[in-house]
Structure to design on (301 residues):
């Protein structure tokens, strides 16, 4: 089958739309969280200001090649996930570079950025880098385990590894969504979603209130800007995967914007309601609640 080269500019148009929506949505979510804590919060345009400022800065400090490839790998994970997953079902323009079996590639891209940042942190030379790597990989690996089980359950249910075909199978109305046809898989995936978003109570890896070090301090200038860009792309790209697998996908941009915002708001709501877990507490939480649901969803299917 010949490759349709016209998909490439449309795929990058999708990235452009998602980046701008991500900047606005993350600022809005931060403002909602601030208002819940009786604070005013940042202006809606603040993320744009920070990104432009950091992209304009340059650094004369070097820690080695891999240290600076970390943010590049991180951004590649978010952009790659978005490029190879259909955004709008039934649209030739915004089906992106999806293909048969793209669900497996999506799972790799979800973990790719985390591994890249771990390699970058390992070359930073900071004595606490190993602590951050251990925290991050332990929690992310445990959070992704129930999601992988939910994905396997959905793949078995629909007998396909194509995200487009999974969305197509859910087009019979809201009761055809995986949310209602396989609720255990969705429950396991949504519990995993809370951990993978790195928001409270699962933000101990970053621990901004206790540890004045880490990526926001070690990385600066344009490298920090790359990480800021990924922080608005990767959550939206990941939510698009959840939307396609479990919530019927989207047939137009307003529907996508609404579903992505509501799913993002779910993690923000949990974050303002519950205190932070320690690493061992979060791992135990996933083992007790999320993993059994994932196993049970596979068994029942």
């Amino acid at each position: 089958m010949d490759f349709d080269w016209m998909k490439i500019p449309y795929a990058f148009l999708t990235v452009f739309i998602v980046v701008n929506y991500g900047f606005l949505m993350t600022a809005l979510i931060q403002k909602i969280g601030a208002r819940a804590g009786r604070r005013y919060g940042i202006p809606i345009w603040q993320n744009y200001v920070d990104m432009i400022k950091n992209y304009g800065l340059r650094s004369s400090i070097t820690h080695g090649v891999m240290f600076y490839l970390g943010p590049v790998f991180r951004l590649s994970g978010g952009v790659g996930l978005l490029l190879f997953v259909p955004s709008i079902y039934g649209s030739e323009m915004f089906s992106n570079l999806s293909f048969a079996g793209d669900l497996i590639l999506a799972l790799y891209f979800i973990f790719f950025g985390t591994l890249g940042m771990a390699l970058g942190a390992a070359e930073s030379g900071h004595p606490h880098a190993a602590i951050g790597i251990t925290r991050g990989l332990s929690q992310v690996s445990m959070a992704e385990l129930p999601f992988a089980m939910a994905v396997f359950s959905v793949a078995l249910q629909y007998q396909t590894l194509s995200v487009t075909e999974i969305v197509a199978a859910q087009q019979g109305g809201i009761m055809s969504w995986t949310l209602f046809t396989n609720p255990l898989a969705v429950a396991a995936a949504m519990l995993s979603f809370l951990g993978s978003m790195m928001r409270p109570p699962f933000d101990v890896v970053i621990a901004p209130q206790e540890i004045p070090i880490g990526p926001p301090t070690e990385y600066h200038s344009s490298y920090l800007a790359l990480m800021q860009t990924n922080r608005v792309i990767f959550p939206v790209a990941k939510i698009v995967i959840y939307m396609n697998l479990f919530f019927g996908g989207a047939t137009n941009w307003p529907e996508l914007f609404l579903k992505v915002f509501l799913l993002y708001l779910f993690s923000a709501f949990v974050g303002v309601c519950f205190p932070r877990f320690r690493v061992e507490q979060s791992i135990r939480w996933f083992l007790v609640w999320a993993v059994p649901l994932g196993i049970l969803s596979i068994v029942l299917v």
